[in-house]
Amino acid sequence: MPDVDRERAWLLTVDGAPQSYVDLDEPEHLEFEYVRRLAHVLDCAAGPGAALDLLHLGGGALTLPRYAAASRPGSRQTVVEFDGGLVELVAEHLPLAAGADVSVHTADARSWLARAPERSADVIVADVFGGSRVPAQLTSVEYAREAARVLRPGGLYAANLADGAPFAFLRSQLANFGAVFGELALIAEPGVLRGRRFGNAVLLASDAPLPVAGLARRCAGDAFPARVEHGEALARFVRGARAVSDADAVASPEPPEGAFSLG
């Protein structure tokens, strides 16, 4: 069940695992490294301060929408979160800042995406976990095609995923999006990429060149530096993987015990 730690900054946990961290006074402070990497994507998606139309699949405590509202005023943001109880808890205890143009909807992410207008988003951020796993309906090439349909030309898709060696799931996801988009990149800590541990990785896809250099600078400067893999290095990582259809799609792997636990 969701739980909120009532301190100056708020930590939301689900079944003992950290789910979201929010500082109501400083929405641009991001505690979790994978959220910082998603924020770097938003930072590089357009010129400084330019407003964007953002679609967030998965909302949590709305950490990233708060960041975008503060860093890119005037952005129009839609959040789709399946957990109605979580939506109510966040609305009651963690209100959005006045003036933030964020609409939150309790719905299934894949169903919402299928109904979303064509070319309606500049950026889609997917951070959807059913418990500790990405649901199967969000792991197919058909899902990737729906994301491409909703993005505007030059738009960005960014997804928080989790996997460990031998990376069968992560490689299949890159194969899915590589079958639909012309440009791919992957952001992860070196220890994860080398197979030393299970961890988060941010998948990026676009039909336009990705801001790899800017992302690499930002990710290298974090407390826990990450690498941005692209081009031939990423092609070698994906080589041999095949796109997965809806009929064969499976949820992401179960994390090892304690992989994302507090303390």
The name of the CATH superfamily reads Vaccinia Virus protein VP39
Number of helices: 9
Radius of gyration: 17 Å
Largest sheet data: 8 strands, mixed
Per CATH, the class reads Alpha Beta
CATH architecture tag: 3-Layer(aba) Sandwich
- Distance between the terminal alpha carbons, to the nearest Å? 18 Å
Number of strands: 11
CATH topology: Rossmann fold
Instruction: Choose one word for the global shape.
Output: globular
Helical residues, percent: 25-40%
- The proportion of residues in beta strands is 25-35%
Sequence of strands across the biggest β-sheet: 6-5-4-7-8-10-9-11
Average pLDDT taken over every residue: 93
Order of helices and strands: EEEHEHEHEHEHEHEHEHEH
Q: How many independent structural domains?
A: 1
Structural category is: alpha/beta
Q: Mind explaining what this structure looks like?
A:
Strand 5, helix 3 and strand 6 (102-106) form a beta-alpha-beta unit. The longest helix has 12 residues, at 33-44. The protein starts with a strand and ends in a 25-residue tail after the last helix. By secondary structure, it is α/β, with parallel strands linked by helices. The protein is 30% helix and 26% strand. It has one domain (35-83, 99-238): Rossmann fold (3-Layer(aba) Sandwich). It has 9 helices and 11 strands.
